[in-house]
Amino acid sequence: MTDFKTLLQAFDQLLQPERFKDYGPNGLQVEGKPSVGKLVSGVTASRELIDAAIEVKADAIFVHHGLFWRGQDGRVVGWMKERLQRLLAHNINLYAYHLPLDAHPELGNNAQLGKVLGLQAHAWCGDQNLVSVGHSLNPQGFQNAEALASHVQSVLGRHITCVAPTAKPIQRIAWCSGGAQSYFEAAIAEGVDAFITGEISEPQAHIAKETGVAFLACGHHATERYGAPAVAAHVAAELGLSHQFIDIHNPA
Question: What is the homologous superfamily of the domain 109-223 according to CATH?
């Protein structure tokens, strides 16, 4: 068991949220019981994840997407009431880290996504250096964007959208988990052959065609399900806590 404040300090020390300008509060979002023995991690503080954490008798939940975001309606009604009601009724602490969890150089979403895809970063770009730039650990790289897309699809286990304007070999690759489509132009400026992220918006399809840089949209959830369990497992081992990752299916 550990104190909930000690757990918060461990997360803060590892992820350094003070370094980031973010879209919502990082750290402890809902205070629960003072002592934590079991920690559950997940991607989003959805009602389904909260219910699953209650089922396994968790004392704390660690997520990438918390409950509170800049500019949202502040009223505790509807789905927000349902989530908060469950957390408070079962005295569960909720910890959430957004951009700090994306950016951690070893355990974060981008680092872990690169690891599972067999990519090695050697530079960073984009807002707050959130975009990783590197190459495949396969010395031959990929024959074309379709070959890269097939590899990514196989690893992530889901269909992806690939806008591949040319059949050129893929050597230099940039990637950023989640909704990072707005960083595409920053990646292009780094001279990459392909950009991997979670989502694509209408402008990026045209930009990919006009620049010859492939764009792979692989799913927001699918690209962000690796950082939370990596960080939570690390901190749990450090503090002697029980940890369980619960992956709630999300097609997005």
Answer: NIF3 (NGG1p interacting factor 3)-like (3.40.1390.30)
